[in-house]
Amino acid sequence: MAKGASYKVPLRRRREGKTNYYRRYRMIKSTQRIRAVVRKTNNYILVQIVEFAPRGDLTRVAIHSRALSRFGWRGDYNNTSAAYLTGLIAGLKAVKLGIVKAIPDIGLHRPVKSCRVFAAIRGLREAGVEIPVSSDIIPSDDRIRGEHIAKYAESVATESEDKFKKLFSKYLERGLDPRKLPEHFDEVKMNIIKALTGGA
User: Fold this and answer.
1) Which CA distances in Å does 178 have to 19, 74, 153, 158, 164?
2) CA 181 to CA 96: how far, in whole Å?
3) Which of 13, 16, 86, 119 is the S-S candidate for 65 at Cβ 3.0 to 4.6 Å?
């Protein structure tokens, strides 16, 4: 009987680019059974606190960046500021459940310095969840607050009002001048803290 080359078909989730099973195996072997899972799409950010269990993972907290609208957010749902705020909400909810430690799980996303994934992790950490990650790779305060977006919007508006309205049409439709994004970020962050902790 003729035999062709042997070929092992990867597991479905690996084929779909959803799970790195080698990395997952190493996480499961870790003594820390709770993962801070961060995923991003072209439009949104998703942050979950997931606990490993033999019969299947248990999702303890799940926050989608669309939830930011409940706190007055009018910016994009997938930028660095939104990623941080989504992580902050997830972290505050995790702390309420007594979860104060987790390991980062960024899936198949590349660990790029100051990227949105690490903005979400910074939000989790500042909410009180201890997550081991180098401070060098965490976005700076100005990026978290969206100052780079505000400065770019200012330069575009100076160059051409029409171009400004075209590039930032979604912001303007939601009633937010992108040049005021840092102040808006501070306001929404305070709304989140007040709503979830009762603090000032």
Assistant:
1) 36, 10, 6, 13, 10
2) 29
3) 86
What sign has the CA pseudo-torsion 16, 20, 22, 27? Answer: negative
Nearest to 85 by CA among 197, 198, 190: 190
Give the sign of the dihedral formed by CA 146, CA 93, CA 46, CA 101.
positive
Global pTM reads 0.85
How far apart are alpha carbons 149 and 151 in whole angstroms?
A: 5
Q: Which fold has domain 16-197?
A: Nucleotidyltransferase; domain 5 (3.30.420)
| pLDDT tens per residue across span 46-98 | 999 999 887 888 999 999 999 999 999 999 999 999 999 999 999 999 999 99
Mean per-residue pLDDT, 11-34? 61
Q: DSSP for 20-53?
A: -HHHHHHHHHSS--EEEEEEE-SS-EEEEEEE--
Q: What is the 3-state secondary structure (H, E, C) of 102-163?
A: CEEECCCCCCCCCCHHHHHHHHHHHHCCECCCCHHHCCCHHHHCCHHHHHHHHHHHHHCHHH
Over range 135-155, report the average pLDDT: 96
Domain boundaries, the chain: 16-197
Q: What's the CA angle centered on 133, arms 81 and 70, to 5 degrees? A: 30
- For 14, residues 6+ apart whose C-beta sits below 8 A from its C-beta are 20, 21
